[in-house]
Amino acid sequence: MTLHAELRVQRDDFTLELDLAIEPGEVVALLGPNGAGKTTALRALAGLLTGGRVRVGESTWDDLPAEKRPIGVVFQDYLLFAHMSALDNVAFGLRARGTRKAEANVIALEGLRQVGLAEFARAKPRTLSGGQAQRVALARALATSPELLLLDEPLAALDATTRLRVRSELGRHLQNYPGHTLLVTHDPLDAMVLADRIVILEDGRVVQQGTPREVVRQPRTDYVAHLVGLNFYRGVASGTEVRLDGGGTLTIAEPSEGPVHVVFPPSAVSLFPAKPAGSPRNTWQAVVSGIEQHAHTTRVDLAGSPAVLADITTATVAELRLQPGDTLWVSLKATEIHTYAR
Ligand SMILES: Nc1ncnc2c1ncn2[C@@H]1O[C@H](COP(=O)(O)OP(=O)(O)OP(=O)(O)O)[C@@H](O)[C@H]1O
Predict the structure, then answer these.
(1) Could you tell me if 80 and 221 lie in one domain?
(2) Is the pTM of this model over 0.90?
(3) What is the pLDDT confidence band of residue 97, given thresholds at 50, 70 and 90?
(4) Shared-domain flag, residues 56 and 200
(5) Ligand 1 center to 30 CA (angstroms)
(6) I need a labelling partner for 181 at 20 to 30 A (CA). Which of 127, 145, 146, 195 fits?
(7) Is the same domain home to 220 and 256?
(8) Residue 251: which region, alpha, beta or left (left: phi > 0; alpha: psi -120 to 50)?
(9) Could you tell me which residue ranges the Mop domain spans (predicted)?
């Protein structure tokens, strides 16, 4: 049954106003910048803050204190009990709910087996790697067969390589989990890879939601555009011309009318020392304001009308002898520009 949450929390002058619906088996990612209200939402769902109404089918959790809510939580730093074995950690929630020790241990061992750690049942948390501790935390959260699994930045404490592996493992476990999952993260990759649907929270409100594909293709705020690495503008279209709100005009290939968002990838932008002649492109002059080396490309930040990000090859950087303050010509094909209604 669908889980419905209505979260209304006031903390000093911050207001969280978030409605969520999560289907069984669905993984929803709550993504947002620092201070957007993600932790507040999580705490309200868990019953640790007042202002969270949760309903699953006919039953409501409003009168349930935190420890009675059918919830499993994986925290960013796992919070495993250091003095307990992996098995006792996983059995903890069952024991707290009154399950007898022998039965709790059987369920906990099966949980450890499912995350591939049965042979570590007796290990103490400090002897486990970061990835293993994360799996124990997941097994612990799932041991009580919760209705709602809350993942709070579950990969944040891992180094980049471990993170990659654990992310795909976690994805597999989530696929097998029949309950509702809410993943709280500020890492867009976690959200893109793990979630069926992404809800973007800014300043306590939902600014956009959709499948990872929809969010990547059609960002609706500067924050989302930045996350997915696209040049992003607001403008007003008239046929194949878009007048941008912040200055500048772009020619697009597909005619459109009225207020639109305009996006294109930095890789679609070319830079030239002189005005490129005779092509059906958008060209304008811009000044280099920043140069940043990425893994395989160089990201150039250009001030102009409009300002733009360009990804160019290291060879081009060398050829142009790029320096901050240089004036260049920006060139962009109309066919690379994507517009959608605001
Ligand atoms: N105990 C508190 N009392 C009053 N205001 C608080 C309290 N805790 C958090 N806030 C405020 O609530 C807002 C949301 O904070 P929250 O921690 O939920 O954001 P977040 O999205 O989880 O951010 P981060 O990614 O940095 O963890 C912030 O403006 C914060 O200042």
Answers:
(1) yes
(2) no
(3) confident
(4) yes
(5) 14
(6) 127
(7) no
(8) beta
(9) 277-341
